[in-house]
Every structure is written in structure tokens, then in C-alpha cells.
Amino acid sequence: MDATSSRHAKYDALIARCAGLPPVATAVVHPCDAASLASALQGAAAGLIVPILIGPQARIRAVAAQEHLDIAGLRLIDTPHSHASADKAVELVRAGEVAALMKGSLHTDELMGAVVGHTTGIRTERRISHVFVMDVPTYHKLLFITDAAVNIAPTLEEKADIVANAIELAQALGVAVPKVAILSAVETVTAKIPSTIDAAALCKMADRAQIKGGILDGPLAFDNAISAEAAAMKGIVSPVAGDADILLVPDLEAGNMLAKELTFLANADAAGLVLGARVPIVLTSRADSVRARLASIAVAAIYASARRIATAATQG
Fold first, then answer.
1. For residue 73, is it left (φ>0), alpha (ψ between -120 and 50) or beta?
2. CA dihedral sign, ordered 163, 167, 168, 170
3. Are the CB atoms for 145 and 244 separated by under 8 Å?
4. Which CATH architecture has domain 125-276?
């Protein structure tokens, strides 16, 4: 199967994994534009979520009428503005009424401000981070890129949490032992490039079981992480090189550029999820394709289901 014919196959398989899973109660925060409201309805139609619409009721109904979107039968919670919408959504999480959040037409920092609130938020002991789950036509499996949206210049300790979040997500999506490539510009450790020092430390943390569940290697340049041929040419012997599941980037700028380059130059689709809070958070963009939006919702549904099963097992 060539790259063109295989495009979307990974996302199709991902969405198919949701068959048989109960739809996840999801607070859709401020869906006051066509894209965000349609995304919620598409997720509901696919049986992935049960959306609860939170926002100014008149605006939501106006968008639905203008775009011919049927919101009859959906729970709609009226709020005066976007900040109140975010606060109400977090309140529903704390009350146990929803198992996921989905961003609508408000700024990401408004939603995340409510999520990380010191007294009313839904933080956990884990650092909050974002993971892109990318369907790259020229790569042989799903590719997870983190963090390209939340943590600007993470410290070593924060990178450990970012890796742990991504490993848990990959495992929920069926990757038993994810391979983590810790990216830098070179493959050797040098004090001149701090990201190589972090990479070496993270690998040792994995050796000491401070990071569990995955196989870590780094520093690795991008070509060596995703091309076995490139790694072999440089004499790199590694179970991760050429077969990485997760790419840990040095900082947000590098990650954002990488994800967008894959999207616009390699025809990749990018689903996205924020982890580290009590529930997964779907961050969609107006530029996302319908398939990418559905994939983001599917990822949240699978992850929420895995979390529910794990919690039940622990409590049992």
C-alpha cells in the first residue's frame, strides 16, 4: 500500500477501536461557532461522546440554526461568557458529571486557566501536557509528539511528567511498550546543547524506574528517530531509532514547528489531547479536518475508558 492510498488508515483504525465503548460524557466548552459545535455533534453521531453544551444559550442556538445543526435533545447549560463556560465545565468534572472536556470557541488559555485553578481546578500531581497523535502517511504507525502546545521550555522534571503522560496515552491506544525518542539536534551528549543533557538524564531515570512503561533513548536527531536507515548510516544501535512511537521535543517551539511541518508538508493529520488533569481535554483547531477532529474525540474516548477501567481495578 503506497503512502497516498494509506492516508487516514491509522485514524480510521483508531476510530474503529471505539466500537463497543460507551460514549463519554463530555463538556463542550463554549461551542459558539460552527466548527466547534459541528465537531461535538459529529462526535455524538459517531457514538464517541455524549456532549453537554456549555455557553451562552442564545448564541449556541443561533449558530445551530444558521448552520442547520440539530441540537435537540442535548443538555445545554447557559453561561454569560467564555470564562464562565470554562468554570462551569471544570465544576462538572469535579462533580463527576463528565469524563472529558472539549474546547469550543474560546482561547485555550481561558480554558486551561480554569483547569489549573489552585482551589477550584482539576490538576493532579502530574504536570499537564499536550500530545499530538499524528497520522503521517509516510510513517508506518501513529506518531505521538509532545509537548507542542502547553509547556514552553520544560525543565528536566517537567519533561519526565510529559513523557509519562505520553506513555500512558500510547498504552491506552494499544502500544504495549511505547518507544520514546528524546529529540535534539545531535546524537551525542554535550554540555553545549542542554537538551542532550536532559535526554541522557531521562534515559537514566527510565533505567532507575523513575519513568515506567516505555523504552527511552536519546539524544536522537529527528532523522535517526524515524529512519532506521539514517540511524544505521550513523552507526546508532538502538531499539528506538527508526521505530519511535513518541517524540519528546526539547521545547514548545520545536514541537510546534515539527507538528505543523508534518501537517502541511507531509499531508499528516494531527489529533490532539491535553493530559495530566483529572480528565482528558480535547483541543481542536479551526484548521483541523473533520477526520482529525473525530480522531481527537476518539483518542479522548479511548483514554477516558482506559482511565475508568484502571481506576475500577485499583479500587477493586
1. left
2. positive
3. no
4. 3-Layer(aba) Sandwich (3.40)
Please give the Cα distance from 182 to 180 (Å, whole number): 6
Grid cell, residue 36, equals 466547534
- Nearest-5° Cα angle at 59, 56 to 64: 125
pLDDT band at residue 3, thresholds of 50, 70 and 90?
A: very low
Answering whether pTM is above 0.90, one says yes
* Residue 228 φ/ψ, nearest 5 degrees: -65, -35
User: In the block, which residue shows the cell 472536556?
Assistant: 101
d(CA 167, CA 285): 24
pLDDT bracket for residue 4 (50, 70, 90): very low
How far is the first Cα of the chain from the last one, in angstroms, to the nearest whole number? 45
Q: Which segments of 173-207 does DSSP mark as H helices, in order? A: 194-207
pLDDT for 30-68, tens place per residue? 999 999 999 999 999 999 999 999 999 999 999 999 999
User: CA–CA separation, 6 vs 10, rounded Å?
Assistant: 8
- H or E stretch covering 158: helix 156-172
